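hey m, so remember when u said the tokens were messed up on ur end? i reran from scratch. heres the input so u can diff it against urs
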Amino acid sequence: MNESPIKACCPACKTHFNVTTGQLKVAAGMVRCGNCLHVFNATPLPPSDKPSPVVTAKPHQALSQDTAPSKPLKKTTSKPIQLNIPSIEIEQHEATTSTRSPFRYITNICIVALVAVLASQILWFKQEQWAQKDLFRPIYKKLYAIAELPLPAKKAPQLILNKKLIIQPHEELTDAIRVSILLENTANFSQPFPTLQLLFTDIKGRTTSQRTLAAEEYINTSLFPEQLMPSKQPIQLQIDLIAPGRRAVGYQLNMLFN
């Protein structure tokens, strides 16, 4: 005997499907929605003008021991129909996103620009310190190249050593002395020559005279055009100066760095 189908509507997802009176009778009217798996009591619905999507109805079994079916039920097979409501929501979301995308694009550009300005300011104010570090030196090299400026030479003043200092009367000139200095740059890189300051003191340690010599005054610029001391190479200097006088009994050499 053919059983007449009954149209049911899931109260959770509003999906319409067909069930039979036999299925309702076995499951005590309780069915499970094939779309959202919601369990509800299927009641007959009035006929509707619009066609309803058909999905598979699964009887709600094992609700209680009294309602367990005594024989297997016939399952109705139907192809599920995709609802249009999710697609409408997606289109609305995409439309909202598209209207906001220009504002987000401009905001992101402003944030990147502010970060770039802040980073450039930090690099500028810290250039004397950070330009000497191997980590930041490649960055400063590119920045100075863009600005068409020479990159400051790397410096390590504590690694320039005075190996020998001898002061004696000049052999050819009267009232003159000859200063012999042996300097060595023990760093692994070339660095600028220091400014030399020669102090003369009397017997009480008071300064009687001094002479300050910049690098270009005591080196041969043709041999060192960039005025950089080569790495781990001793350099012998001979400097002729006017004699400081008879009061000068002591002397001292200071190396000054810019």
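this time it looks ok to me. Residues 85-125 form the longest helix (41 residues). if urs says something different then somethings off w ur setup not the seq
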